[in-house]
Every structure is written in structure tokens, then in C-alpha cells.
Amino acid sequence: MTTTTLFDEDLQRRARRLLNGDHRVGDLDRLYLGIRARARGFDAVREIGDFVAHRDTRDKGLITQVGRDVFTSVDVWSMAMRGLKATLADLGRAADANLRLATEDQVKAGCGCGRARARKRVESALEKIGRGHSMSEAEARALDYLGNRFVWRPAFSADQLIDELGRLLIRVGLIEPLEQARLAQARTFVALHALSVMHGSSITMPSGHKARLFAGFSNRDRWLEVKIEIVFAELGKPLMTPICLFLTDLLPEDHCATSLVTSEPVLIDFWKDPVEVGPDGRLALLA
């Protein structure tokens, strides 16, 4: 016989309100906090739960790992443009990062083999270069693709987040399997909430400096997103490279208050103030 604790009863009632279209930020916060310790294998849900719990600076988790990998990828790839020469160690760390970032199809297209073999070819290539020996053609191809290329991908999307949230709520017994489809009507609310909790946070980079996260829609399609601010200082003045880490397919005109929307070319830091999901279900400035 299963005993429902008062804690789980609290979460079940909040999940019920979410399914019924009663979208409260406090309920979603409590759900994330209540299930994040049980979110093994549900990285996107765990990540948002950790942002709800610790918004100041993140030093672990999915966003942090992908953010660090993207930084490493663009750092090594752009060295020549910044007047720097990449070392074998630089090529190795770029290859490690790009192997985590690239899809299996990208690795196969770029290296002509799967991920595990590509890693071995890069390791062999670096070892041979270090000893002054010649690489094979296959090793040179893998090293060129993975060691000297900028690879990017978001850590996760709005679709992944809502899918994981539904499956995890089922697994921990807060909703029934047949109810997952009803959670889809909360997709926009869940995505906007994620944007609001990540906006203004930062992640700690390997060097120890903090890289800012900010929400906005500075992209070709004007989709709402969260980007990381990557800064290089070798060119006499800081050069910022913003990279998307969380992507939605939501437009600001449809889902933001008018104070957050502009038809002018969008600056990467257009939203300079905290934001929240307002009572009307739109992102708005935090009053």
C-alpha cells in the first residue's frame, strides 16, 4: 500500500492546478524544487529546478557544461583572429568540448566515423604531432574538424523541457500517464517561466570569471531565448560573443508585455531589468 505524504499531496494539488490551466509561478517553483532531487535522467527539469533554487551563479549542471563547452569551442576557433596561436593542449580541449557539443550525424559527416573512433583519432593525432611524427589522413581530418571548429547547440529547448517535465511528474506519481497530454497546454507558461529564472543569472567559467545569462530575442527569427555572454579582451577592447543556450519558438509580440518588445534592431542586452511571468501570462518587467 502506497502512503502519500503531506509533501507529495502539496505537489499533487499544485500539479493539478497546472493541468487545469491555473498557471501560478509559485506552484511551478514549488514543483521544480520538490522534484529536482528525483530528476536523474531529466537534465532540463533538474537544471530549471536548480536555477529556481540557486539563481545567482551556477557552477554545475547542464547549462554550465554546455556554456563552458561553447566557450572553449569559440575560444580556440577564434584564436587566430585574436592574434593567438593554438597549442596542442588548446586543440585537445577544443576537441573534447566539440565532441560533447556535436551530434552523432555531425561527427560522422565531419570525421567520417563515429564519436568513439573520432576521439581516438584525435588523441592519436595529438600524440604523433607531439612526437614529431606524421598523422594519417583520417587522423588529420578528425583533428581539423574537432580541434579547430566552432560547434554550437542549445543546452535544451522548450519542447525538451515540457516533455521531460511531463514524464517526470508521471514517474514520481504526481500526475497520471493519460494526463501528460493535458500538460501541453502549459507549454508556453513553462517556457516563459524558464526564461525568467535564467535571465540575469550567470555561470562560472573554467577561468573563474562569471559569464552572464540574459533572455531576449536577438536572432533572425525573433524567437525568445537565453544567451550566454562570452567576452574576449585581446583586441584592445572587449569583444562579446552571445551564444544561445535555451531556445523557444515563441515570439515576443505574442508573449511579452509591450515594454519588452521593439521593432528596432534588437540589442543583445535590450532587457536590462528583471522579468517575470505576469498575471496575464506574458513576460513583463518585474515591478
Map the helices and strands.
Blueprint: H1 6-19, H2 25-35, H3 43-53, E1 57-58, H4 62-77, H5 88-101, H6 104-111, H7 115-131, H8 137-147, E2 156-157, H9 158-171, H10 180-183, H11 187-198, E3 202-204, E4 210-216, E5 225-232, E6 239-247, H12 252-255, E7 275-277, E8 283-285
Helix pairs in contact: 1-2, 2-3, 4-5, 5-7, 5-8, 7-8, 9-11
Characterise this structure.
By secondary structure, the chain is of the alpha/beta class. The protein has 2 domains: 6-61 and 154-262, no CATH class; 87-147, no CATH class. It is 47% helix and 13% strand. The protein has 12 helices and 8 strands. The protein is globular. The termini are far apart.
- How far is the N terminus from the C terminus? 48 Å
Q: Count all strands and give the number.
A: 8
Our Rg estimate from Cα atoms comes to 22 Å
* Mean pLDDT level: 92
Model regions low in confidence, pLDDT < 50 over at least 5 residues = none
Shape by Cα distribution: globular
Structural class: alpha/beta
Q: What percentage of residues falls in helices of 4 or more residues?
A: 40-55%
Main sheet record: 6 strands, mixed
Q: Which sequence of strands runs across the widest sheet? A: 1-3-4-5-6-2
Strand content: 5-15%
Order of helices and strands: HHHEHHHHHEHHHEEEEHEE
| Number of structurally distinct domains | 2
Query: How many helices in DSSP terms?
Result: 12
Task: Describe the structure concisely.
With 287 residues, this protein is of the alpha/beta class.
